[in-house]
Specification:
Layout lengths: L2 H6 L7 E4 L3 E5 L7 E7 L6 H6 L3 H19 L5 E4 L15 E5 L9
Antiparallel strand pairs: 1-2, 2-3, 3-5, 4-5
The structure holds adenosine monophosphate and zinc ion.
Adenosine monophosphate (AMP) binds next to loops.
Length: 113
């Protein structure tokens, strides 16, 4: 089982910021910003393309964005945040279980797009 599946199934303890039926949200161990929460579908999909190809895509992606809004509310980042997905090796993905980074809590200056 992959590390994010173990976290989703509570086999590895973590500080849960928010969860619903489809996703679990917890703090990144190497925060890139004052707020850095990972929004992780509970079901294992390797990456964003695998999730998008699945029959659950609309429901799970809806839950991801609703969870992001809730995490922004809970972390006080409704004044601005980024939601990032690194997809596959050339996109910089290192954990092969799809996840979305919500970063905020500061003015995010390192814009590449
Ligand atoms: P990515 O490089 O987009 O695949 O992002 C993987 C992220 O997972 C990195 O920001 C890591 O710091 C984070 N990470 C890896 N293992 C854990 C863990 N056990 N708990 C929380 N975050 C983790
Ligand atoms: Zn997994």
């Amino acid at each position: 089982m992959c590390i994010f599946c173990k976290i989703a199934q509570k086999e590895i303890p973590t500080t849960v910021v928010f969860e619903n039926e489809d996703v679990i949200c917890f703090n990144d161990i190497h925060p890139a910003a004052p707020v850095h929460v990972l929004i992780v579908p509970k079901k294992h999909y390797e990456d964003a393309l695998a999730l998008t190809a699945s029959e659950d895509a609309e429901k799970v992606l809806g839950s991801v964005f609703r969870a992001a809004a809730k995490v922004a509310e809970l972390t006080g980042t409704q004044d601005g945040f980024r939601l990032i997905n690194n997809c596959r090796e050339k996109g910089g993905q290192t954990v092969m279980h799809v996840h979305f980074h919500l970063i905020g809590g500061a003015t995010l200056s390192e814009k590449i797009i």
